[in-house]
Amino acid sequence: MTARKIVVALGGNAILANDASAAAQQRALRETARYLVKFIQQGDSLIISHGNGPQVGNILLQQAAGSTPDNPEMPLDTAVAMTQGSIGYWLQNAMAAELTALGLEVDVATVVTQVVVDENDPAFETPTKPIGPFYNHEEITTIQSANPQFHFVEDAGRGYRRVVPSPRPIDVVEAGAVNHLVNAGVIPIAAGGGGIPVVRHGHELVGCEAVIDKDFASEKLAERVGADQLIILTAVDHVYVNFNTPDQQQLNAISVDELQQYIAEGQFAAGSMLPKVEAAIEFVTHRPEGQAVITSLSNLGKFIENGSGTIVSTVNAESSV
Hints:
This protein has helices at 22-41, 53-66, 76-101, 137-146, 175-183, 214-224, 256-264, 273-286, 300-306, and strands at 5-10, 45-50, 108-110, 114-117, 129-135, 151-154, 160-164, 169-172, 187-189, 196-201, 204-207, 229-234, 239-241, 249-251, 253-255, 291-296, 310-313. The strands form 5 sheets. A 6-stranded mixed sheet has the order 2-1-12-16-17-15, with helices on both faces. Strands 8-4-10-11 form a 4-stranded mixed sheet. Strands 5-7-6 form a 3-stranded antiparallel sheet. The protein has 2 domains: 1-118 and 173-227, 3-Layer(aba) Sandwich (Carbamate kinase), CATH 3.40.1160.10; 236-320, no CATH class. By secondary structure, it is an alpha/beta fold. The chain has 9 helices and 17 strands. It is 37% helix and 24% strand.
């Protein structure tokens, strides 16, 4: 088999479940690493990206709780950078341990990654990305008075959550460095948490208060490094239509045209599967020779063995269900 350059985008369930302690997240990533090293064993080149939703929310809470005039809390872009460092550290440590156990001498390195967004993106006018915990009305009144720039929304009767803009990524600043690393045989961990959101001001990059969708950022990275495959990991083995109904059907090999028809029918939830499907479409549209895959971490072994998962390409599939 010809070696491929593969970007794997880890979902939050690969890092954090119920226990937010460092030890628990490290254990989860050690289990994740056991799946990821399978790509190295079969001779592929690997680039890893990951989410950071729960982690960045927790950091912001810790920052706010300990903020003083002499030691103020850090802005959101810096909090994203902090999670890139902490999760990258845990993951490169876990990967190194698994690689060593298999007798594979491969270096793993985390790249603190900036992702460029357009400061005129309409998303800045309409914050939609929830971060952090739920609050009751009294709590947000207090928080809002101390932080008038914050935006909150009521979430399905469960309370209020802070929301921030989620602009689309337009470039990955360190994509060249990531490509140099992977071409040199190193496993880079990059674009963590969707990347640190920055806007271009002349020759400068300026951080902004936003969170970039991890799947769109991973797609942009895969596109920029010329990846052969983008694998987006989520909680289910396949994408489904008529999800959670008696008519539920899993999608196997499927074309962009078919997926776009399902999007038009409203088959995919905006807050969960839709961005993954849209990122997969975007990748194979920009790299027609490439392939996008949506599946679960636990299904990676079956995917490697027999192609199990939802596989998206630009060509018409013979059978999509």
